[in-house]
Amino acid sequence: MKPLFTKGPSLGVRLLVLVVLSVALMVVDARFSLLKPARSQMSLVLMDAYWITDLPGRLWDGVASQFGSRTELVAENEKLKTENLLLQGRMQKLAALTEQNVRLRELLNSSALVNEKVEVAELIGMDPNPFTHRIIINKGERDGVVLGQPVLDARGLMGQVVELMPYTSRVLLLTDTTHSIPVQVNRNGLRAIASGTGNPERLELRHVADTADIKEGDLLVSSGLGQRFPAGYPVATVKEVIHDSGQPFAIVRAVPTAALNRSRYLLLVFSDNRTAEERVNAAAQAQESLDAQGGGPTIPTTVPKVVSPAVPAAPAAAPAIPATAAPAATAPAKPTTTPAKPAATHPAAAKPPTAQPAAAKPAAKPPVSAPATPVGRE
């Protein structure tokens, strides 16, 4: 007699098969890129799950905001007005500095972006692995995000995009142990490399000489030497500098300026991808076109003014030539009459008198130039 229910594999065998399959999937995902398309497609399905799980929180925030007290709103309004006034004053100074920077760059015949294009993104998830500092934002490949794109908040740099999906992206934070960024001390321009330590509140500067001019409180900004992060953005503030006489390098610890574990809204920086040579060539072409537009109309206006007074000067000198030519012709007449006596006795000597009148013709040219000088003086 056959049993009513057939027996399958035992629970232990099933568990073993599932464990082996899970390990195989983790190894394939870590070593190869075969599962990235599947992960990208799964993110489309998980977007609805993210929206549904975040719905209670958004509903609670909406209800709580409706029942806020009037006094709190009035106090917050006054505080915001004061901050807005201070920010407007700083913006006026920043606008003047920006215009001055633009003029200096034009004088140096160079081209560079004064303000990069940015786009606001929102943090929607975090990596649960405590040894990996990664976050997920709600901007992806469909929004124009690219690999390696810098991400910052209102205080400074946070990290860079390391993985793209259609509508989301993964960002590697500065404090991850696998991340490093070239920085420089804002006070004196000292260059160094800031590396992550795995602690969200600490960065370390590697291979800083023990005699380097760096001290507590120095602001570290991005140097732009890695061609990944734009130059001049705050990165960290030096918190501790330890000098050991027995070690060639000092121990420098810094605190990131960005709120890595508190910021919710971030900025994606779209910087200029042109090389320095391309930017210089573009600036040179723009300067040449500007010079052509500014100097073109002045050339024809000055040429007629110089040529016009020289043209009537020629007829004015013409009547002066015959007036001086008459006395010049009488002056050489005396030497021609004196050798006329020996010309009768010596027939061979008749040739020199013929040469003398021929020489008298070039002698008439100096008198022509003589009256020309007073005409120029007039």
TrEMBL record:
Q: Which NCBIfam families match?
A: mreC
Q: Which PANTHER family match?
A: CELL SHAPE-DETERMINING PROTEIN MREC
Q: Where is this region: Disordered?
A: 280-303, 321-378
By its UniProt entry, which InterPro entries does this protein fall under?
A: Cell/Rod_1 (IPR042177), Cell/Rod_MreC_2 (IPR042175), MreC (IPR007221), MreC_beta-barrel_core (IPR055342)
Ranges for the Rod shape-determining protein MreC beta-barrel core domain? 124-269
Keywords for the protein's UniProt record, in alphabetical order: Cell shape
Q: What is this protein called?
A: Cell shape-determining protein MreC
Which family is annotated?
Answer: Belongs to the MreC family.
Bias (Low complexity) = 321-363
Lineage, opening ranks: Bacteria, Pseudomonadati, Pseudomonadota, Gammaproteobacteria, Pseudomonadales
